[in-house]
Design brief:
By secondary structure, the protein is of the alpha+beta class. The protein has three domains: 145 residues, Immunoglobulins (Immunoglobulin-like, Sandwich), CATH 2.60.40; 171 residues, 3-Layer(aba) Sandwich (Rossmann fold); 37 residues, no CATH class. The chain has seven helices and 21 strands. β15, α4 and β16 form a beta-alpha-beta unit. α4 packs antiparallel against α5. The radius of gyration is 31 Å and the shape is elongated.
């Protein structure tokens, strides 16, 4: 008879604790997660810090934290962390009375992009696994992974040639607006530079002395169209090829800022946060401007929103002038050449920079030089 009562009492306790943890297992349980840095470069490591606190007297036998994280964020294997298919991550905790646990996970960022890892599911259960309590939690765990900045020896020849030409043009091209003084006419001076007032005053033909351009303005234009006749879906290998152009744009933007050159950016691709909005950044020269361009590249979705010729038509209609335009594209066509010629007639320089596959190396070894 005593054994029967023991069984009844134990069974009642088991059912009672199951009922409690099934309804209130997550009561006063607080979970947060965040990245050690919100902005890193592809190939760099970042720390994901998760904290869970039990703010009540009763312990929680187990709490499982489930979340979906991109395969491009590679976790270093650790205890109490389960990874399924490189996408689904589960952390298991035991929470004692008023206990707080903090775990740090080292992550290698394999690919540029924008990653929102803030949505997690908490599941708590009783000792026997008979019942569980579930709750979704939203955390501020967002990560911008910038494209890797290429070293000079990794840049294609076309990029190195363009950098050299820009460096030379900065000092040898006279600025059509800036006038540094007046001198006597010399054979070969253009008639438009004649200073008629000074000529009348001195009785000798005088011309304006032009100052030199010291702050050129560059506009990087990335084409997310793999072919002039392909307007829709791209194969994964084709999209990955365009990624070389993304990294090239990041590298050219960093070089421009480092050398005191105003640089802007535009693309016919889409933004992950606003796919229908045009990505266009006016030329500026500052660290904040570089950050703005890199953020746009992190958010970029390799998806053609409009044709590249349409993007150039909009610049022509806006009367774009005095710009050094660099078109980073996987191809060049008669359609693009016609637009380039028109932009050149509007006092712009236009350079076609073909996208080429960069020298391969391990992503983990890639170093960023912003």
């Amino acid at each position: 008879m005593t054994a029967v009562w023991i069984i009844i009492i134990v069974s009642a306790l088991i059912l009672a604790q199951a009922a409690y943890y099934g309804r209130r297992g997550l009561k006063n349980v607080v979970y947060t997660r965040s990245f050690g840095s919100e902005r890193v470069f592809a190939g760099e490591k970042v720390e994901l810090v998760e904290t869970i606190t039990n703010n009540k007297l009763l312990p929680v036998p187990w709490v499982r934290v489930e979340s979906r994280i991109s395969a491009h964020l590679r976790f270093k294997r650790q205890e109490n962390l389960g990874i399924a298919m490189d996408r689904f991550h589960k952390s298991l905790f035991y929470l004692g009375s008023y206990m707080k646990i903090t775990r740090r996970h080292e992550i290698t960022c394999l690919h540029r992009g924008y990653y929102d890892c803030g949505l997690v599911s908490l599941v708590a259960g009783d000792l026997m696994g008979l019942a569980h309590d579930r709750r979704d939690v939203s955390c501020m765990a967002r990560l911008y992974v910038y494209p890797a900045i290429l070293r000079p020896d990794e840049l294609p020849d076309s990029a190195l040639k363009w950098q050299g030409e820009v460096s030379v043009r900065r000092w040898i091209l006279p600025d059509p607006i800036l006038v540094s003084g007046i001198r006597e006419y010399r054979s070969g001076d253009p008639q438009k530079d004649v200073h008629w007032f000074a000529t009348a005053r001195t009785g000798r033909l005088q011309v304006k002395m032009r100052d030199y351009t010291v702050s050129p303005r560059t506009l990087l234009a990335l084409n997310c169209q793999i072919d002039d006749k392909l307007f829709s879906w791209m194969e994964p290998s084709q999209a990955e090829f365009i990624e070389n152009g993304v990294s090239l744009c990041a590298s050219l933007a960093a070089w421009c800022i480092e050398n005191g050159i105003d640089v802007g950016f535009m693309t016919n691709g889409a933004s992950k946060l606003a796919e229908n909005e045009e990505i266009s950044i006016e030329p500026r020269c500052s660290e904040a401007q570089l950050e703005k361009i890199l953020e746009a590249l992190a958010l970029l979705v390799i998806k053609m929103r409009v044709g590249m010729h349409t993007l150039l038509d909009r610049q022509i209609e806006a009367g774009l002038s005095g710009m050094d335009i660099v078109i980073v594209s996987a191809y060049w066509s008669q359609t693009l050449e016609l637009r380039a010629a028109q932009l050149r007639r509007m006092n712009n320089s236009v350079t076609y920079m073909p996208i080429k596959r960069m020298p391969e190396r391990q992503t983990e070894e890639r170093t960023a030089h912003a």
